[in-house]
Specification:
62% of the residues lie in helices and 5% in strands. The chain is mainly α. A hairpin with a 5-residue loop joins strand 10 and strand 11 (745-750). The longest helix has 45 residues, at 418-462. The radius of gyration is 34 Å and the shape is globular.
């Protein structure tokens, strides 16, 4: 007996509709709570310290935002900043990713229009926590498209607390990643949404989201390479569809046109090797689409001939495009790749050829403990999420797997890209936890339902005259229906095979879900909740202790209480109040953004690091003897030199620890600077065994000048844990003008050049002295 079609397509009962609506309301309120959690967990930096901008790069972004809100968008695009990279300067509008600045500026304008008088600094401080909530919601939408609402909510709450993302999105971390991670996740969501629906509307939104990502961060190249890889994977595995074409083709065309509108990108969107993969896959997908179209309108024999023609023409076109690309790439010394991209493809490239990239701490490869620190239990849940994505495998789940694999590789090359791995790890862990909860709760429900049925049957058996329970009658009726289904008539045999066999297989698989013993289910559920508790505790600790301290205000705990080191702001305030507006300050590039933003003084180099020769010049001056360094700085019109020293208080990120990078970068441009001259038997030393070149370098002298006065003549360095080699010396070309309270920042002034007195005899000297002005009345150099 065949099953009626009406039974397969029954209308949804009102109870299930009400339950669905109630579930949506609950999910909405959970998402609100997740947003509040993501925002509030990032406020420890403001609660424990104060509302202040963190790190180094955020100070430049804050300064640019101030200029934007004060002068407007047109002046921002045309702004030439003469206070950086003296005497070269910098065109800000054409060298900065404007997404973060425009976002914060727009928020400030909206708040002002609503008569909410928040300062620009306050808006900049809280931009990252706000967008972390948006990122959590975008993660929910992305994971929901892959595995449903439960997995989406779990992934969202995991991302809201993951330490890797907290490290770059605490209150005060006003960097590009603050908005870029949201743009990254939202772009991936719209791509998968288009892939699932085939809607051109979502494809257009995907291109706009990609445009916002291009405006926000240079990591947009990860998107424009990952999506083509997924498209190619779908084509190779035979999963091509019109939805795949709609999801990819508008993104390449419209997204590339929009990306070219960003001044810092411009024609690089079509001229650099980072974008060539998207164009090659664009050609491939059109060849495949043409082949599928021809297959639908031709007979099998004609299709073979046409397919041969299409494939041959496609190969010729691809070879021509590849030849053109190779010709363009061969004309570039870096083969069309940027230095950072090459360092990702070849981890040894930066250390060999571009030491300025290798010198940045966040460009170093991570250690194994850093994965547990930044991901915690997610590192163990990710493999389970991968397995869950294969059951069943879809276009969306294959994209998430590919995203995870690529982000794991890149995070292993550069610790900064742990930030890109965090959303993928949260998505996979959310899927794993959701599937595990489904199995555990299903097993418990199955046990409870069986227990209730057993109690009902026992109650029925105890009643008099009820030898046969109603449930047994129902089972008998079901058996009769099954026997009728097993013996169909010959006329309807073919129809039943087509209409019933496939649904029956599905129903059999649906009737036999994975069910665990109830004891194991309760125990596993308890362990899962306990694991989540450990994750919450670790995330809160990381947000409160590890990642909330601003680098500009330092603290330490000792037996006599908490100590606060505010030396950086003390030094910048001294520069602002005790130097002329046009004075030039030289320091290592790490402190350039802060000096310009907080002291409002012109710097020689800063954190943009766009000119390696200029940075090498400063590194050479720091590595040279005092007289040679004075000549280099004097040629750059430098009046003050700032060095950071941590030997007194034990601050490890000082210039002495960075000094070898100054030597390497300087030696890469000026060959007379050689790293072995600063090493003793291959070891970097500052004690009595240090080389004469090291002891006579400007960096050594400016760091350890008068250091022996702090501990009664010992000169013990708490960072290097040794006594310095050269304790007593005088400066001939520099003079100390300011040292902060804890000796963390030291500022020196270049001594003026001595007057030249011609003649060798006293008589000639006296004659010349009568015709030349006295030294006290010499006219001051206008550059100083």
């Amino acid at each position: 007996m065949a099953v009626p079609v009406d039974n397969l397509t029954k209308p949804t009962p009102p109870s299930s509709t009400l339950r669905f609506a109630f579930g949506n309301v609950i999910a909405f309120f959970i998402l609100l709570l997740i947003g509040v959690l993501a925002f509030s967990i990032r406020l420890f930096s403001v609660i424990k310290y104060e509302s202040v901008i963190h790190e180094f790069d955020p100070y430049f972004n804050y300064r640019v935002t101030q200029f934007l809100t004060k002068n407007g968008i047109y002046d921002f695009w045309n702004w030439f900043d003469d206070r950086t990279w003296y005497p070269l300067g910098r065109v800000i509008g054409g060298t900065v990713y404007p997404g973060l600045t425009l976002t914060a500026g727009t928020i400030w304008e909206v708040l002002q229009s609503l008569n909410i008088p928040l300062s620009v600094e306050t808006v900049c401080v809280f931009t990252a926590p706000v967008f972390s909530a948006f990122a959590a919601w975008a993660t929910y939408l992305l994971t929901k498209e892959v595995k449903g609402t439960g997995a989406g909510l779990t992934a969202a709450v995991l991302l809201a607390m993951v330490p890797s993302y907290i490290s770059r999105s605490v209150a005060g971390s006003y960097d590009n990643e603050a908005v870029a991670i949201f743009a990254l996740i939202f772009t991936f969501y719209l791509y998968i949404k288009t892939l699932n629906t085939g809607s051109l509307f979502y494809a257009t939104l995907n291109s706009i989201a990609y445009f916002y990502m291009v405006c926000s961060w240079g990591g947009y190249t990860f998107i424009i390479n990952l999506i083509p890889m997924h498209v190619l994977l779908c084509i190779v595995t035979g999963r091509y569809s019109s939805r795949l074409y709609i999801a990819y083709a508008p993104l390449v065309v419209l997204g590339t046109l929009l990306a070219a509108l960003v001044p810092v990108v411009g024609f690089n969107a079509v001229m650099t090797s980072e974008h060539f993969a998207s164009f090659l896959v664009f050609i491939v997908i059109h060849v495949v689409a043409l082949a599928y179209y021809i297959k639908g309108i031709l007979s099998p024999k004609m299709f073979k001939v046409a397919a041969t023609l299409v494939v041959s023409v496609g190969l010729v076109v691809c070879c021509a495009v590849v030849a053109i690309l190779l010709a363009v790439v061969a004309s570039s010394p870096t083969k069309g790749w940027s230095g950072r991209s090459l360092s990702l493809l070849d981890p040894t490239y930066a250390s060999k050829y571009i030491p300025i990239i290798a010198s940045v701490s966040e460009h170093q490869p991570p250690t194994w403990p850093s994965y547990f620190m930044d991901l915690n239990v997610l590192a163990f849940l990710v493999p389970a999420g991968i397995i869950a994505c294969f059951a069943p495998l879809s276009d969306a789940s294959s994209f998430v797997i590919l995203y995870l694999v690529m982000s794991v590789y890149f995070s292993g090359v550069m610790v900064r890209l742990m930030l890109v791995l965090a959303p993928a790890a949260c998505i996979m862990s959310g899927i794993a936890l959701s599937e595990a909860f489904d199995v555990f709760t299903r097993s418990i429900k199955f046990y409870i339902s069986n227990l209730s049925e057993f109690l009902q049957t026992d109650a029925g058996d105890t009643l008099p005259g009820n030898n046969v329970s109603p449930q047994n009658e129902v089972l008998k009726n079901e058996k009769k229906e099954d026997t009728l289904k097993e013996r169909p008539s010959r006329k309807n045999k073919k129809k039943e095979k087509e209409n019933i066999e496939k649904p029956s297989v599905k129903s059999k698989t649906e009737k036999r879900p994975l069910v665990l013993p109830v004891e194991a289910s309760f125990f596993a559920l308890f362990l899962t909740v306990l694991l989540g508790g450990f994750y919450v505790v670790h995330s809160v600790w990381a947000a409160a202790e590890a990642y909330s301290a601003p680098s500009i205000v330092l603290t330490s705990h000792s037996h006599d209480g908490l100590h606060v080191f505010d030396d950086f702001r003390e030094a910048y305030a001294w520069l602002s109040h005790n130097t002329e507006v046009d004075d030039k300050v030289a320091s290592w590039w790490d402190y350039g953004y802060q000096t310009t933003a907080m002291a409002n003084r012109t710097v020689i180099v800063d954190n943009n690091t766009w000119n390696n020769t200029h940075i090498a010049t400063v590194g050479t001056a720091m590595s040279s003897p005092e007289k040679a360094a004075w000549e280099i700085f004097n040629s750059l019109d430098v009046k003050y030199v700032l060095v950071v020293f941590g030997g007194l208080v034990g601050y490890p990120s000082d210039d002495i620890n960075k000094f070898l990078w100054m030597v390497r970068i300087g030696g890469g441009v000026f060959p007379h600077i050689k790293e072995p001259d600063y090493l003793r038997d291959g070891q970097y030393r500052i004690d009595s065994q240090a080389t004469p070149t090291m002891l006579n370098s400007l960096m050594y002298k400016l760091s350890y000048f008068r250091f022996v006065e702090t501990d009664g003549g010992k000169g013990y360095d708490r960072v290097r844990r040794t006594e310095i080699g050269k304790k007593y010396f005088k400066l001939t070309h520099f003079e100390e003008v300011f040292t902060t309270h804890h000796w963390m920042v030291r500022i020196y002034k270049l001594k003026p050049q001595k007057n030249r007195i011609r003649g060798k005899t006293k008589k000639s000297k006296s004659k010349t002295s009568s015709t030349t002005p006295r030294s006290g009345t010499v006219k001051k150099n206008p550059w100083h």
